[in-house]
């Protein structure tokens, strides 16, 4: 006489039901994780753009402060205000040319503008505006600096 042994484990229907319930519970979590990863990517892109803009503006501001001769900005074109250094927008790269050497100082540049809103004591105030854009994020930063070095008595050399 054979005795029927008690079976342990789950049936196929029970396993499928368990998987369906788990999928219903995990699906919103996966969407939440994807949204969080997208948010982190956009935030990282904005931080990178801010850092790139800050570095480029700092470099241009140092060049302006070290320009030996502050020209009357009404007499010359903006591109030559910081001569012998020039800045041009080539595609999406901001290129600095100095002594025949070209260097990309910022990428993903959407707009770049130099303006001189005023001149005080023969030293023009240079306004620099830089807009960078990448991965759906746009960052605009501005900086103002007086062109030309200062002497100890506050007058331009």
From TrEMBL:
Keywords: Membrane, Transmembrane, Transmembrane helix. The chain crosses the membrane at residues 12-30. This is Prepilin-type N-terminal cleavage/methylation domain-containing protein. It comes from Pseudoduganella lutea. The lineage of its organism: Bacteria, Pseudomonadati, Pseudomonadota, Betaproteobacteria, Burkholderiales.
